[in-house]
Design brief:
The protein is of the alpha+beta class. It is 16% helix and 31% strand.
């Protein structure tokens, strides 16, 4: 008679063993994972990877749509670039020459030269794409159908003679990169600086009070009426005794806004400089430099010590601007390329140095005799005559350099944001 089998000594091959083992194993794993989650412990890396790989939840279509929507909200597509119009017949390659300006070079390639940063800023070879030098080679290429100008520096050649023992062989020319040092002054200017250098600190727009309160030239040593350099003059008025050098100005015309009849200021016309040698009443000074005749009654103002900007970056204003030309510098009838005009818009109107404005000739008013309903006056459209760049600003007015002109630009012509 066999002894009874103990309940805990179930045979290994019993049909109940496998299902019960799997059940208990599953319960144990579930309890273990729950404990890890509640206590902050994480399973080992291999187990986690296996769990994520083998038991990742099935994503429903609604969950996928929601994730795509969130992804689209996070991703902001790049703002489309402004269309760059190439000039017809533009060169494929150009070698920079002495005397060139960035504006003129850009005009060879681009119909709108002020868009050169859109083309040259993409070139990662150059730290400052505005600084190019004579001898640089500019090549036009296309990247993703967009024009790009690549600047290549000239290769420096080094000639190394062969030792005498080899005979009279030709010298070996080694081509390779080398350091070329250039001063900023040697770089190509953005615009013709000589055209405006004399206007950068000298012309001014002042108020009536500034003119009336400024010291003035009372007389000269030898009773000259027209004065020049080295003449000794006598000055009355309140002088700043911390200064010895003053600019001499002649009161110019009153600048009146043609739209509002507002007085924008008075043009102060630069005549020269004076050095005060004695502060009395009257004070004594010597004219150290003159650019035009100095007259009795001319005023003295402090020298403008603001820094002269040698690099200008023309740009289109980011908003619509409309104004008028209120004065022509040293011109009676009209101005053209590289001449100066004053407009009735200033810093209070958001005008900045470098802003580009198109000039428009006023359209004439003509009689329409062919109208069957009777004659009537018809205003013809304003026609574009040129392009100006603002280089000096004041509160109510600004000085602009004419960069392009196809027609004579006259006083009261319109200036607008280029299109």
């Amino acid at each position: 008679m066999k002894p009874p089998v103990s309940p805990v000594q179930i045979p290994a091959r019993s049909p109940i063993v496998a299902p019960l083992s799997i059940i208990w194993l599953t319960i144990g794993l579930t309890i273990g994972l729950s404990a890890c989650s509640s206590t902050g412990h994480k399973p080992d890396t291999e187990s986690a990877a296996l769990t994520n790989t083998e038991s990742s939840p099935v994503q429903t279509p609604s969950a996928i749509d929601e994730r795509q929507t969130l992804s689209q909200q996070r991703y902001q597509p790049p703002v489309p670039q402004k269309p760059i119009r190439m000039r017809e017949g533009h060169p494929r390659q150009y070698t920079v020459k002495k005397g060139d300006t960035l504006w003129d070079i850009s005009s060879l390639f681009l119909k709108d030269p002020w868009y050169w940063p859109e083309v040259w800023h993409k070139n990662r070879q150059i730290e400052n794409p505005h600084l190019i030098f004579p001898g640089d080679v500019l090549t036009l290429i296309y990247v993703d159908k967009q024009p790009q100008i690549v600047v290549a520096k000239p290769v420096q050649q080094k000639t190394v003679p062969i030792p005498k023992s080899t005979g009279d062989a030709l010298p070996v020319v080694k081509l390779g990169p080398s350091i070329r040092r250039e001063g900023l002054d040697a770089s190509v200017q953005t615009i013709p600086g000589d055209a405006i250098r004399q206007f950068l600190t000298r012309p001014r727009i002042v108020t009536k009070e500034e003119l009336e309160n400024a010291p003035y030239i009372l007389a000269s040593e030898d009773e000259h009426l027209i004065l020049a350099q080295d003449n000794r003059v006598y000055i009355r008025g309140e002088l700043d005794k911390d200064r010895v050098r003053f600019a001499v100005f002649r009161p110019g015309e009153e600048l009146i806004d043609p739209e509002t009849d507002e007085t924008l200021g008075y043009e102060a016309i630069y005549s020269g400089e004076a050095h005060v040698i004695r502060y009395d009443d009257p004070a004594v000074a010597v004219l150290t430099a003159t650019e035009r005749e100095v007259l009795l009654g001319d005023r003295l103002l402090p020298l403008d010590k603001s820094k002269i900007n040698n690099l200008y970056y023309p740009k289109v204003p980011d908003r619509e601007v409309e104004g008028q030309i209120v004065s022509l510098f040293d011109a009676l009838f009209g101005v053209g390329k590289f001449q100066i005009a004053i407009i009735n818009r200033g810093t209070r109107d958001g005008i900045e140095v470098g802003h580009l404005l198109a000039t428009l000739n006023h359209g004439d008013t003509v009689d329409d005799y062919f109208n069957p309903r009777g004659s009537e006056d018809i205003k013809l459209p304003d026609e574009r005559s040129g392009l100006m760049m603002i280089f000096r600003t004041f509160d109510h007015a600004s000085y602009g350099l004419i960069l392009e002109s196809t027609k004579v630009i006259r006083i009261h012509d319109v200036v607008v944001t280029p299109r």
